[in-house]
Amino acid sequence: MDFLSIEFLTALLSIIIIDLVLAGDNAIVIGLAARNVDKANQKKVIIWGTIGAVIIRVIATVLVTYLLQIYGLRLIGGLALIYIAYKLLVEEKKHEISATNQMWAAIRTIIIADTMMGLDNVLAVAGAAHGDMLLVILGLAISVPIMVWGSTIILKLTERYPVVITIGAAVLAYTAAKMVVAEPLIAHWFANGVVKYGFEALIVVLVVAIGMRVKKIKSEKTKQQALHA
């Protein structure tokens, strides 16, 4: 495909739009994971987490043909993402932990979550690129700064409005539920629209309800320990 052809530029624009539209929940993951790291390391977490996630996504896009043949991948990814949504919701800030260990733990969470969530993105980008890897890499390279910028905004919002953490966890839980119902092995279970949307809503409600309950119990326990200290 000619670098300056209308076909190439149209395909590139399509990939950028796909990346940006599907990057919203990824920005949430990055922002929520980085919030528990001390401020001095938050920028590093966002940058390295994003770089790691993009590298994984480029590799996954190259291997997309093989990924499509792996039954159960969406189910595993969805279940992993449900756990990550719950974990991000109940985690408290613990700056007394080793900054280095905490920073790498946050980066690891970002990369794992983005890998699980990136399946739809990978499939969409691979389709729009028509096998042209230059298009894939250019599309990702252009969308990454916007993804980092989005996660920085979310990070600031979580500090000012704690409810954003709950909303973010709900978005991740919804993304996870959509991955589960799209799994070819069990897709027939959700052929009925009521069952499908009911399941997705149930997962969101359970993750948020259980997460908030556990968070409340942890908070009360911390207060009691502080009083007895």
Automatic annotation (TrEMBL):
Pfam family, one: TerC
Highest taxon in the source lineage: Bacteria
Keywords linked to the UniProt accession: Membrane, Transmembrane, Transmembrane helix
InterPro entries for the chain: Integral_membrane_TerC, Integral_membrane_YjbE
Topological category with respect to the lipid bilayer: Multi-pass membrane protein
UniProt keyword Transmembrane helix present: yes
Protein name, per record: YjbE family integral membrane protein
